[in-house]
Specification:
Layout lengths: L1 H44 L7 H36 L7 H19 L7 H19 L2
Length: about 140
């Protein structure tokens, strides 16, 4: 019985780092979703009167991309908060969410690079490093 308690304590200690990193990622994704939602509202409030058709087309693409990113960040935030609650209880979570988040932030960073916003690359890369660290920490747990 004492050995089983020690195994649970060891497991909780091993899950401490992924747990807090997951909470951090969930908060960051929530903030991204909120700020992107604000950006979507601003994009939809812009007037298209006296604007060239090329600019209107670019604005429509920006509205679509911003809306998609807002929804995806909100979904990732909810899933990360769910993983955080599982990690808090001592349950080992699958790594698939962190792989999906890694792919998403790589695409987000690529979108920032292609749109000429190099400042928008750094936070997705930090999220990517966090996700990789969580994946590696979860791999160490038996």
């Amino acid at each position: 019985m004492g050995n089983q308690l020690d195994e649970k304590a060891v497991l909780r200690a091993q899950l401490t780092n992924p747990r807090w990193m997951t909470l951090t990622l969930a908060i960051i994704c929530s903030l991204f979703a909120i700020f992107t939602l604000l950006g979507v509202f601003v994009l939809f409030m812009l007037s298209t009167k006296d604007i060239k058709p090329d600019a209107i087309h670019a604005l429509q693409i920006a509205k679509i991309l911003a809306s998609v990113f807002c929804v995806l960040y909100a979904i990732f935030a909810l899933l990360l908060f769910n993983n955080y609650s599982k990690l808090r209880k001592g349950t080992i979570v699958p790594k698939m969410l962190y792989f999906a988040l890694s792919i998403f932030v790589i695409l987000s960073a690529a979108n920032s690079i292609f749109s000429g916003q190099l400042g928008g690359v750094f936070l997705p890369l930090i999220i990517l490093l966090f996700a990789i660290k969580i994946i590696l920490d979860l791999d160490k747990i038996k």
